[in-house]
Amino acid sequence: MSITVIQLHKRASYEYKHIQDKYAISSENNVFALADGTTQSFNSELWAEIITKEFVNKPNFSPQTLISQFKESVSGYKNAKFEFSSNPAKASLERAKQNKGGTATFIGIKIKESSNIEVISCGDTNLFLLNSENKIRTFPFSDINSLDANNSFINTEALLQNGIDESFFKKT
User: Fold this and answer.
1) Which carries the bigger pLDDT value, residue 24 or residue 130?
2) 4 lies in a domain?
3) In a domain, 26, yes or no
């Protein structure tokens, strides 16, 4: 089994630290995670990095436990230093975004014996598995309409207000 990470970023992300999509891998735990920080939220690249690292360090496929873990991680996100723009108008917009928190989609995967995997996801991040016969299997979405209809994301403020529940997560 091999893992290929392909990361395409928006033109505005000239430096890696500004790419809002993050991944983390733990060979010890045979897990990896991907998170897509949403452009509209505040400092989403940091939030995406925090939840991917949290998952690979303590992999868990119980939605309720994962929600608790991520909720505990919000303080690290909120306490991180952020340099606001020197432009007062832009800084005002950044502060308004900060009040709404960081948001990301998430998918965590554990590679088990016999090339089996366990997957948990939240949001519109999708997994594509290519088997030895070049057939593609997808999870959790197999068509564009169900993908577009998904509105479940992991937001820092929603976590603190208990606004994220098990129904946000899909498992296989």
Assistant:
1) 24
2) no
3) yes
Token reading at 35: 């998170």
Indicate the length of the chain as a whole number: 172
Residues 6+ apart with CB under 8 A from 130: 136
By C-alpha distance, which of 73, 65, 75, 57 is closest to 165?
65
Please count the structural domains in the chain. Answer: 1
Tokens standing for residue 5: 């990470």
Q: Are 52 and 29 in contact (CB under 8 A)?
A: no
Q: Would you say residue 167 lies in a domain?
A: no
- Which residues, including other chains, have CB under 8 Å from residue 133's CB and lie 6 or more apart? none
Taking the C-alpha atoms of residue 35 and residue 124, their distance in angstroms, rounded to an integer, is 10
Model pLDDT, residue 20: 78
Examine residue 168 and state whether it is found in any structural domain, yes or no: no
d(CA 70, CA 154): 9
Range of the domain at 108: 20-126+136-143
Q: Report the share of the chain in percent with pLDDT over 90.
A: 66
Q: What are the E-state strand segments in the chain?
A: 21-26, 31-37, 103-111, 117-122, 127-130, 136-139, 154-155, 169-171
- Tokens encoding 32: 């990896």
> Which tokens belong to 89?
């108008």
3-state secondary structure of 83: coil
